[in-house]
Write a structure and sequence with these properties.
This protein is of the alpha+beta class and 256 residues long. The protein folds into 3 domains: 8-94, no CATH class; 102-153, no CATH class; 160-255, no CATH class. It is built from 12 helices and 7 strands. The strands form 2 sheets. Strands 1, 2, 5, 6 and 7 form a 5-stranded mixed beta sheet that branches. Helix 2 packs parallel to helix 6, helix 8 packs antiparallel against helix 9 and helix 10 packs across helix 12.
Amino acid sequence: MITKETAQATIDAATVDINSYITKLIATADLTAFNAAKNIKISDGPYTTASFTAYNNNSQVKAIVEIAADTLKGYAQSVVDSYTATLIALQQSILVKGSDLTAYNAALTAVSQGNYTAASWSAYQTVVTANVVTPDNIQSAVDAATAKILAAQNNLVYTGAYVISKAKINSTNFGVRKVGDNILTRAADMITAAGIDKTDYTITFNRIDSGTAVINPTTGLITDEGNTVATVTFTITPLDGGAAGTTANLDIFINP
């Protein structure tokens, strides 16, 4: 035990002993680069299945990757580095990059089933299933499959609830109306403004309040402002039989 009262000669001797033991410690090899090369995945290229299989079956690759990590740590760093270099060289000589699936994968993730009617999603999935590609396909085939999937997405029909949400059919966004306006037309215009094809839906409304404003229950035409406010709900129904959606109570403010 060294303290402030320990003689300097004793401290110096202890320091020499400590340094002696430090020099005897064996530093383990750094496996960071080796593990990165060892753990290559087919999706990293992406690489073709055939070339990736050939790489994994290569005798040199097998011999190197099967060396236990604890064994490698006991080797000199130069030895580990040579193994790493060998793996990288073999990867460069054997592996073949496949087609680029970036656009294809982006197309598949661009749409979510919950936003669309069951019928339109089923039809879309038929197209997707018929156009499955992998990096093994030539690029022109991948591009053609991507184009077909994107085209099929144009035929997807949103659920009624999603239309209401996306078009923001609510009291805040409906805007003040006036006598002569049509509330069904206004709802349809909001749907169009949201980038949705209104012809895929029927739009109806239900009068909630018992005020004196006059709105034709069939056509939606405002003919009298009455007490200048009316409360309604709109129901958006997909024509393909998908689930309808109904808004929350919506206050329509009416000017003369």
